[in-house]
Write a sequence for this structure.
């Protein structure tokens, strides 16, 4: 079973993904960390040096061509589902789960993690919430194509496993 976790940055994809993978005894991958391992630098550095368009092309290549095992849990970057044919590809390749959170909840989580997130560096308070609202509105149509939409605040591995096994 291939499980792709999607959602806005700060939604908890990596944290939840590790818990879900452990419960299923599947390996866990974080798409941004794979990119960092391959490039030898941070996503923020790659973004700054090469721009968003080149980053999204490389992100697609890693997502769709990496040699993943048969069963795994993968946390994508927040924008990954919204570029190229990534969302369609993930939906065909496995099961997608959207961790949904309100813009204010996301802003609260991101407030202290802005330095390593190039898109929100320098934003704070209402400015950060407004940025998230605008970006989330643009991405929501992609996120809502997921097989499952779960509340990012109360998501629980057992409930998600039950959803997956009932639908698989």
């Amino acid at each position: 079973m291939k499980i792709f976790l999607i959602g806005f940055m700060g939604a908890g994809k990596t944290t939840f993904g590790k818990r879900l993978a452990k419960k299923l005894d599947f390996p866990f991958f974080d798409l941004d960390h794979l990119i960092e391992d391959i490039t030898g630098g941070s996503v923020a550095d790659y973004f700054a040096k090469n721009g968003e368009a080149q980053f999204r092309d490389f992100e697609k290549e890693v997502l769709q061509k990496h040699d993943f095992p048969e069963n795994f849990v993968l946390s994508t970057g927040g924008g990954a589902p919204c570029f190229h044919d990534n969302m369609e590809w993930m939906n065909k390749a496995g099961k997608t789960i959207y961790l949904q959170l309100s813009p204010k909840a996301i802003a609260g989580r991101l407030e202290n993690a802005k330095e390593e997130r190039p898109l929100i560096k320098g934003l704070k308070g209402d400015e950060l919430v407004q940025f998230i609202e605008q970006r989330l509105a643009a991405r929501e149509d992609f996120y809502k194509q997921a097989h499952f939409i779960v509340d990012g605040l109360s998501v629980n591995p057992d409930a998600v496993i039950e959803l997956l096994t009932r639908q698989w």
Summary: The chain is about 55% helix and 15% strand.
